[in-house]
Amino acid sequence: MLVDHFPLTELRLRTPRLELRLPDPEELAALADVAADGVHDPAYMPFRIRWSELPPAERARSVVLHHWSVLGQWTPREWRLPLTVFRDGAPVGVQLLKAVDLAITTECSTGSWLGRRYHRQGIGAEMRAAVAHLAFTHLGATDLVSSAFTDNAASLGVSTKLGYTDDGIERHEDRGRLRVIRRLRLTRQAWLERERPDVTVDGLTRCLALMGLNGSAASEDDRPQSPG
């Protein structure tokens, strides 16, 4: 069975409204359709790599190819986990969690996109909170990092809601003009001190070795807890 060779296919994260997991082929096709319908206001570009400007059919195909490419490059030392986000059984976007030498660095980073029709419903914060729970509670992470352009109010709002603090800036050229990215950092302690949605994680144990952890990541019972 596939799960015997790649146990990440059994990993499930669940929040009050969402489920995050790897998609089957037909669900990946449905996710590509979500991207084809648009992921942001065409007047604003939130991504450094302008994949969302592709024509709808090419944009959809790029989602499929990128998903396969990310999984195909997986190693325990360096990995990217592209979890499809489902609401009411239908895909609405992607929440990525990635790390390099996690057992040593104890740091993960995130990236995401959400179908435009699902914006402004609190989904972005809930799906990032889900992977924060995975990283801090189950993978032994001490820090979670993210970034966004300084004019990306939606992404920065999610980070503020979850307790991230500033971690510097990056300056980038984009089609002949300067764009500035804010780096953001969420520590485990800051995460523990804030109210959080309930998250359950299933199917993780056999995945730990694939993440370079070899079963050594601390469980929730090993963590200091706070209300909420």
From TrEMBL:
Pfam families: Acetyltransf_3 (PF13302). It comes from the Bacteria. This is GNAT family N-acetyltransferase. One of its GO terms (molecular function) is acyltransferase activity. Residues 18-185 form the N-acetyltransferase domain. It is an enzyme of class 2 (transferase). The lineage of its organism: Bacteria, Bacillati, Actinomycetota, Actinomycetes, Micromonosporales. PROSITE patterns: GNAT (PS51186). The keyword Ubl conjugation does not apply. It comes from Catellatospora aurea. Its EC number is 2.3.-.-. Keywords: Acyltransferase, Transferase.
